[in-house]
């Protein structure tokens, strides 16, 4: 390769794990950023090597990108273990790449620093600001209602994603990179910088310099991750109105660090944490505005009384020191604890006979009138059944109905596809209905909105109570009381359960078979059972 001994001898070897690919639209700037990381590594006296890893792209992967998060985690861990690497810079940003890379790095436990892709610039259509995902759902409903033409739709497509970077709403990507920063795994301020801002390049080079120092300091992920750091991350998630997907990923990340997070902890922290980021889908603005308003450091500074400020970060300083000097420059975008967007956090956990192990809803992104609702079920057996019948004019449905989707969970989907924002039936769209109670064991895009109850556990594919719902059953949702119940008596439910027949597993070989045999349920983070923290994997012998 043309290196001389002096290039690498006695220097830390830094693996730059790069999730670039021609299909990873959110990471299209990563080839340039990898070079900028290398610049920093060389400057600090390290030896950089770039390691390509699976680029999980939210828009293209089938059957669902979530199915491959654990694949990327395994790949990251084994890339770092099987090769002569002393420290790593992890480059990701599109939804599943952040948890995938971090889960692998936590299990490997070499010094590692996360480099977030940064959000796209704001979208624009005819002077209207467009947010990725959120405005797609919104205008698609208008298109289905006949209020938007094909030509206008096409113009919006050209304007909504106009630069490199991940989705610029507070979707899963922005949520997970903010969580990575709050956990202490990025440089302070890194997650808010837009992908194409010159400061993003400077941050990449700084990651390169810092990881070399981290190797000499032997500062590893599990030195940084503590129960308090995860509480900080959940608090930040609630204050930003983060994606519901974050719950699954945080449980999985904590599991890799040997920390158990139950869903109740999310609800307790949500109850005491006001949501202060005024960002779509729960608010008005976009990530570019958030950066100009001070970014995540300023937001964390606003909620510093709710944080454990002595937690360590990859910078070698505490999170308290990292956010100390940050201030809010636009109080419309980052509000205060006294004047929040919502007095409690962005996510609530529900329990009841329909979700014995929990379900999730984002009340801040739903029509308030639906947060306490009783309606009759309209049941779709799976996604194909939904697509075939949802717009059928003869479907017995009205605005008070509760739409139920079965077989869309970790095994049923498979991979918990983001089908949880079930479409509103076209005949109701035409009547002006824009939100309904919807229940599934699927996930929902972090950019989506509506009274959607998600992650119902256990899932219907394994015989959870969601499998027992029938058309016209009464369903009761009570978010203030955190309840989700099927109003059917126990004898009838027992009869239905006895008659329930499991479907065959979807994969007979390959990764799909491994996934089907080992994936855990949503409330347990959907990690593989054999990847949770346990005995250390020994360093391979070198022969
Ligand atoms: Fe990558 Fe939305 S498509 S973050």
Polypeptide structure, described:
The chain is an alpha/beta fold. It is 35% helix and 13% strand. It has 19 helices and 14 strands. A six-stranded mixed β-sheet has the order 12-11-10-9-13-14. Helix 7 packs antiparallel against helix 10 and helix 10 runs antiparallel to helix 11. The longest helix has 20 residues. The chain is globular. The model has no long low-confidence stretch (mean pLDDT 96). FE2/S2 (inorganic) cluster binds next to loops.
User: In one word, what is the shape?
Assistant: globular
Helix content: 25-40%
Strand content range: 5-15%
Total helix count? 19
Which ligands does the model contain, each kind named once? FE2/S2 (inorganic) cluster
**Major sheet attributes:** 6 strands, mixed
Low-confidence segments:
none
Give the distance, in angstroms, between the N- and C-terminal Cα atoms: 22 Å
Q: Indicate the mean pLDDT.
A: 96
Q: Which class do the helix and strand fractions yield?
A: alpha/beta
- Give the strand order of the largest sheet, numbering strands 1, 2, ... along the chain: 12-11-10-9-13-14
Rg for CA atoms: 23 Å
Number of strands: 14
